[in-house]
Structure formats: structure tokens, C-alpha cells
User: Fold this.
Amino acid sequence: MKTANFRFQACLLVLTLLVGSGPALGGMVSVGALQDSMIFGTVAGIDTGNASGKGPALFAGADGQGNMKRSLIEFDIGAANIPLGATITGVTMTLYLGQIAGSGGGGGVPPTYPSRTIRLYDLLQSWGEGNSGSPTSAGIGGTGQGYPRQVGDSTWDYAFFGSTTWSSGGKDLHGGNFSATESAESTFTSFILGDAYTWSSADMVADVQAWVDGTAPNDGWILKSDLETSPTSFLGFWSKDGAAANNNPALAPSLQISYSIPVPEPDTCGLVLTGIMMLASVIRRRRNWPSPH
Assistant:
């Protein structure tokens, strides 16, 4: 009986070593913005000279004078948040609505407001948040024109005001340097202050995967409204600085990322050899055990 039990335990040991791995491990993380900012162009596409690095909001669309507003945002995609070797499976950006054009920053929404489509484009150049608008206002109303630009701000013509223009192939650009192909779009038909508005797509997944893998630089996205040539069409979302000024981190921009991490397959041949060697060792020791009396 002892010999049979011993053989069973030895076989069980070998089988345990040969058991394969389980499915890939999954996870989800919500990361905040590293930096966010706004750039401003006139109806004729000329830099207004203003910026909003520390302003409370991120606008997309046009104001009552037809001046255009676009927003830049870059999230904290790093090893501290996303494990090395992760495969990105889902990405959702969430912003919280703080102002609607014509509402004065807090009024009701007229029923004649049209739907808004706001698109995300991958930025192709690093840029600066800057300090314009510091200290940050706790309210959005009256901040939609931005603030006098400072050195290091991103503006309509500059990635870093005072040093670096938006440019591609040596040609100066206006309104940002971004991909011609959108990463995502969302069309909004209902506008409620404080509500969450989201963007999610397979192209956003591809962007984040490239940033995580290091095959493309993480310069974030630009938000651009389809109605930016239509006066009084903007939407304003809370920035990270606006959320901080209100002591309400729940209002800050966030990026929800789901991912999977493959579990390495075991070295089957190596496990078999290890199991056989362990079994042989146990057998040798068993043979040297004294016989029971």
C-alpha cells in the first residue's frame, strides 16, 4: 500500500508541474491628465494672442464673435499606470460639461440648440500647458476668451509660445499640428451641466497602444468641434485645474483604459525533465529507506 501511495503521489507531482497556464490577466485603470490647455483663433484663423494653460475649462467650438476654440489634452500613460507588455483592449475619455454657449455659465439650455459633434485627433507634436490663467478661477463664466499668453503656453500658432511654432516638414501650421485622420468622434444632443461626456473608439485604443509600446510619442489629443465656424456653438468642459480650483477631483478629465497581460506559457519540455528528475530522486531515496519491522 505504501508503494502504491508513493507512486500515486509522485505521478501527481509530475502532473502538477505539467499543468498549463490560465487565460490572460485583465485590468482597468483610470488615469488623469498630465496637462490640458486651450488655443484660440479668430474667425479668419489668426492667433488671438491668448492662451489658457491654467484656465478652468476646455472649450471646443466658437463664441458669439465666431472666434474658434480648440482644446489640447495629454494623459498620464506610463509604466506606473499601465503594466509593461500590456495589450490595450478599451479606451474611454470622460469630460464633464461646465458651460454651454449662450447659457451664461449656468442657465438652462434653449431647445433650439443644435447637436454638436466634437472630434479627437492625435497630436503630432509636443506642446506646453503654460501658466496663463494662473491662479485658476473656480468658475468658467467669462474665461472663454482665454488670457494673455505667456512664454511656454500653447497658442493657435505656437506649441510653446516664445520658442516653437506648430510645424510639419518645416512649414508653419495654425491651429495645432495633428493627424488628418480622427481618432474618435462623439455627437451630443442633450446638454446638462455637470454630466459626463465620453469618447471611445478602436482608433483611440490604437493610439494608446502605440504610446504604451513607445512606437509613437504620447502628445495627447486635440478636441475640435464641427461647428467651430458657427458663432455661439461651443461647449466648455472642466479642466484638471478647474476641478482642482473647486476642490472636486471628480470633475477632472479622465481616461479609462482596460488591458490584458498574457500569462507566459510554461516550458513543457523543461517541466517534464524537472518532473522526471524529481521523481527519480524520490525513488532513490525510497529504496534507501529502512524496511519496516
